[in-house]
Amino acid sequence: MNYRFLVLLLIHSSVNFCFGQVGINTTDPQATLDVNGFTKIDEKLYLEEPGDFEEIRGSKLLVEKTDETIVQYDIEASRYGPINYAELKFQNVSNQGVQDYDTGISIADYSVTVQGFYVRGVNGESNVIASSNDGDQFIEGFQVYAHKDFDDETWHIKAFVNNSIFRLGANTNIRVNIFLNLIIYRKGLLTKEGPSYSISAGNTVTVGVLGKPAGF
Amino acid sequence: MIRIVLLFFVISMNSFGQVGIGTTSPETDLHIAGSALIQDELKTTELGSTNNTDINFKLITRLTNSSPLGEITKLDVDNLSVAPINILKYRFVDISRDNLEDIDLSFESSRYLIAISNFRYIGDPITKQNVSGHDRPSIGNFITRVFTATSFSNPSIDTWHIQIQNTYLDAATESDIEYEVTLIVYDKSYYRSLDPIEVNLGGSNTGNVSAPNIK
């Protein structure tokens, strides 16, 4: 059966047989099947033993585009990476901190998180303190976060200490610089945004077990 | 004789020199109107790249549990119950004073890595308290962290826990405090957890440490 198959291929000049190797559009196949051109596979592709490569340097991820072609993912040249990092530097912020800032980043396409921050005086002073408007005996909580604004359909940032102002020593008439580390995840590539959960500690539980969300 | 005729329709070629397998009208140099299985290496020399107008592309993965082995598929994260990266917003309400001392989140540390982000302390402050023998009141020690520890439900495994509280001071009993965090839950099948990096500063407040060995 096999030798008849090979005889048939020899009849066509673009399909070549040489030492058990088949070439399409080449007379010098470099592998068992060597296609000098494009290949279209209508159904599935299986790679039984493609081999392993243990270094990330020099490798590129593969993606399938919406036109169904498979290409290399050139993150530097692309509109976005799966995970994107930006340092967001607010300068000359009022002593009340950042009350509302529109990043312009779409809530439909991205998840934005603040994963680190620090506050300095406008001249780099590190001894900025936050003091409660209700008096020095109170330690107020802080909020540094990104949230979805559904009117603008973008992520907004807030960075402040509750009910407090920043000051340098006794001087409350200051401005500050606030530095945030933003990690911005492109949805649908590696990242899935799950639901939001509200968990009640029943006013008593300080040590306990919270079950995982469904599916995990 | 009959066998040759059947083979002719399995593999065919058009007048442009294009070869079809399972089709008599190939659309390109090699057109397989079905599935293909490659036993060894696949190599391409002129694969294109994404540019800054491409959007909504999906990553390609290879399954190790398909039959036959090695099916190439798109990673469709929206249809996975656990994606490589999962963004989960947790809001803790009805907290006892300010204390979330140790809440077991139940995510197994063998399967997940968790990072904390978008922190909000919403509500009443904590009052500084006098410390005997000191002339200034204390501000205590406010901790926000996720950490791995023995699971409360299954002591033979470790899970991720969360702690958010002032460990030295307590808010008044009638305080209304809520915490909101966004947890980034990474599926460890896609990520590597490095060994902890420890450095002894020997009493100094500066120092250095070697970078982890990542190739």
Task: Give structural notes.
The complex is a heterodimer of chains A (216) and B (215). Chain A has 216 residues and is mainly beta. In chain A, 4% of the residues lie in helices and 50% in strands. Chain A is built from one helix and 18 strands. Chain A has one helix spanning 2-10, and strands at 15-18, 21-24, 33-35, 39-41, 45-47, 62-64, 70-72, 83-93, 98-106, 110-121, 128-132, 138-139, 142-149, 154-161, 164-168, 176-186, 191-200, 207-209. Chain A has a three-stranded mixed sheet with strand order 1-2-3. In chain A, strands 8-16-10 form a three-stranded antiparallel sheet, with no helix packed on it. In chain A, strand 1 and strand 2 (21-24) form a beta hairpin. The two termini of chain A are 52 Å apart. In chain A, 20% of the residues are buried. With 215 residues, chain B is mainly beta. Helices cover 4% and strands 38% of the residues of chain B. Chain B is built from one helix and 13 strands, in the order H-E-E-E-E-E-E-E-E-E-E-E-E-E. Chain B has one helix spanning 2-10; strands spanning 11-13, 19-21, 30-32, 36-38, 58-62, 72-74, 85-93, 100-108, 112-123, 126-127, 142-150, 158-166, 177-187. In chain B, the strands form four sheets. Chain B has a three-stranded mixed sheet with strand order 1-2-3. In chain B, strands 7-13-9 form a three-stranded antiparallel sheet, with no helix packed on it. Chain B has a three-stranded antiparallel sheet with strand order 8-12-11, with no helix packed on it. The longest helix of chain B has 9 residues, at 2-10. Chain B is elongated, with a radius of gyration of 29 Å. Chain B starts with a helix and ends in a 28-residue tail after the last strand. The relative contact order of chain B is 0.16.
